[in-house]
Amino acid sequence: MKTLQMPGSWQQVLAEELVKPYFAKLQDFLIHERLSYTIYPPEKDIFSAFELTPYQQVNVLLLGQDPYHNENQAHGLCFSVKPGIKPPPSLVNIFKELRADVGCDIPKHGYLSQWAKQGMLMLNAVLTVRAHTPNSHKNQGWETFTDAVINKVNERSDPVVFVLWGGYAQRKLKLIDVNRHLVIQSAHPSPLSAHNGFFGSKPFSAINSALSDYGKPEIDWQLPGV
Questions:
Q1: What are phi and psi of 121, to 5 degrees?
Q2: H or E segment to which residue 165 belongs
Q3: What residues sit in the active site (predicted)?
Q4: Catalytic (active-site) positions
């Protein structure tokens, strides 16, 4: 495994982070993990969120926790799966709320890259996972790295919408200047919690209302392939 390379604008933004000892240690951990286990997402997809949403184009940051851990699911965007892969339960609930909130037809796939291309950084707190072993790469350095990403987005002079679903994401609130940015919070879309405040929270219309107020383009939530 070669040294992980951040794409484009993020390389410069995160340059200081990429040379810190913890990041070298994290890369060593990943090298050894790949020698013994299947790791998701594939190496080429670890930084997909950053490739699809350059730093200066981030208008929304959606924070997930851990990549999907089953075969062919994770591809570097939180909550998203590649075309042809059955949408997991949390994503099914996201689509239900999307339809209830803004009337979008539910697509036949769970590939959310169209949202990322419109300025939504779809960031997991941990960017890799061992196959079939959730949270197996927590506390190895990814959280330090993605906290730095949140800090860099928070430093942006123009306002950003941060979307924090569930208790884990909401613990990152301390990294966000709520006087300059909007934070949208609710329960997590997981089947375990969606009925406790995710359904009916109308996050998609709230995001677009904020973007409109900021003079930024609203997101077209309707995914192709319905």
A1: -75, 115
A2: strand 161-165
A3: 66 (proton acceptor)
A4: 66
The type of residue at 210 is: A
What does the angle CA 84 – CA 55 – CA 167 come to, to the nearest 5 degrees?
Answer: 65
Backbone angles phi, psi at 124, to 5 degrees: -85, 150
Q: Which two tokens stand for residue 74?
A: 């994770």
Residue 221 lies in a domain: no
Which CATH number goes with the domain that contains 71?
Answer: 3.40.470.10
pLDDT digits (tens, 9 = 90+) for 103-132: 999 999 999 999 999 999 999 999 999 999
Assigned domain for 99 exists? yes
Both tokens of 95, joined, read: 């689509």
**Per the structure block, which two tokens stand in for 2?**
């070669």
| Integer Rg of the chain from CA | 17
Positions of E strands within 68-147: 120-124, 129-130
Which residue range(s) make up the domain with 180?
8-213
Tens digits of residue pLDDT in 176-216: 999 999 999 999 999 999 999 999 999 999 999 999 999 99
